[in-house]
Amino acid sequence: MADSLLRLPLAHPKTALENLRLRYDDLCSRKDFIPYEFNLRLPEGLNLDTVLSYLPPDFFTSPPPPTDKSAGPSTVPTTPHKPNRPAFALALMGWEGLSDKRIGAVPNSASCHTCLRRLGLWMFKSKEVDPETNTILVPAPMSHLDPLREHRFFCPWKNGHAQRNPGARPTPKGEADKAGWEVLAQVLKNDAYLRSRGAAAARSDTLHARSKSTNVPQSAPPTTLSTPGRPTTAGSGVVGRGHDGPLPAFGPGVDEEDEDEATTTAKDKERWARLRRVKSLFNTKAGSKLKRTISRPGTGHSTLKGSGAGAGAE
């Protein structure tokens, strides 16, 4: 029963992100007491840069971070938010600012609202540091801060058995149950993967819609005349049909679809008139030549004709 009461609600990504942002903002309000990053001793399996890459792009800016009201209205233009890495690491481990019911916020302390552990931040921050080399000039009372070890032993932020859901699948042999901070990191990773898949699908849909809107329908191919051996206008080729289909036409004047009916009829008449004139020339030359050959004496034709006549007379 105690395990079910202490289990952290981390399965819902939206709720987990909102609570993480609240803890982070609460710690950033105590930034003067937050230890430096080199004062922290984080778990070996935690890569802070990797976890930061899992966050949504507007995690630190939506909603806007709280402003210091004591400083008055700011006239400095807004710049991209640079995350406070030590504050984010503490928030990832379940820590947030300490608040007392009687005195309100305690600026130099943090607490875990799950195991009710309180932590004096001022004990772990180096008192004097060289800003250029980050060399510690005056050390803190404590050598370092291990935010995971500072939780109580039963806290689900560090106790995987307390965080494990009894209805979940059995843990594979050789693996330990994931603590709360590991479950939160996995939830952030899964959420980042789903966002990337959704963004890729949205880009694909946008490109598909854009390609459809800019697609120009192709015009129908020009029709090809199939009259075999039909002559065209002067200087043009002949449009006909070969063994494999319509033969191409070369030269100007082959596109007769643009001409009106009257012009086409006149051209057809002109073509047939030319053909008749050419035919009449060939017929006249052939007839005169045949007459000259038959009337010439001494030829085989004249002899054959005369002998035939004589034979008929006999």
Number of strands: 7
Shape: elongated
- What structural category arises from helix and sheet content? mainly alpha
Radius of gyration of CA atoms, rounded to a whole number: 50 Å
Report the sheet-strand fraction: 5-15%
Topology as a string of helices (H) and strands (E): HHHHEEEEEHHEEHH
Can you count the helices? 8
Determine the mean pLDDT: 76
Please summarize the sheet with the most strands. Answer: 3 strands, antiparallel
Q: How many domains is the backbone divided into?
A: 2
Distance between the termini: 150 Å
Unreliable runs: 69-78, 222-244, 246-258, 300-314
Helix content: 25-40%
Report strand order across the widest sheet.
1-2-3
Can you walk me through this structure?
- There is one protein chain.
- 15% of the residues are buried.
- A hairpin with a 6-residue loop joins strand 4 and strand 5.
- 39% of the residues lie in helices and 8% in strands.
- The chain is mostly helical and 314 residues long.
- The protein is elongated.
- It has a 3-stranded antiparallel sheet with strand order 1-2-3. Strands 4-5 form a two-stranded antiparallel sheet.
- It starts with a helix and ends with a helix.
Would you summarize the structure shown here?
This protein has eight helices and seven strands, in the order H-H-H-H-E-E-E-E-E-H-H-E-E-H-H. It is mostly helical and about 325 residues long. It has a three-stranded antiparallel sheet.
Question: What topology does this entry show?
Answer:
Elements: H1 2-6, H2 13-28, H3 48-53, H4 85-92, E1 96-100, E2 104-111, E3 118-120, E4 128-129, E5 136-138, H5 160-163, H6 180-213, E6 241-242, E7 245-246, H7 261-295, H8 300-313
Antiparallel strand pairs: 1-2, 2-3, 4-5, 6-7
Helix pairs in contact: 2-4
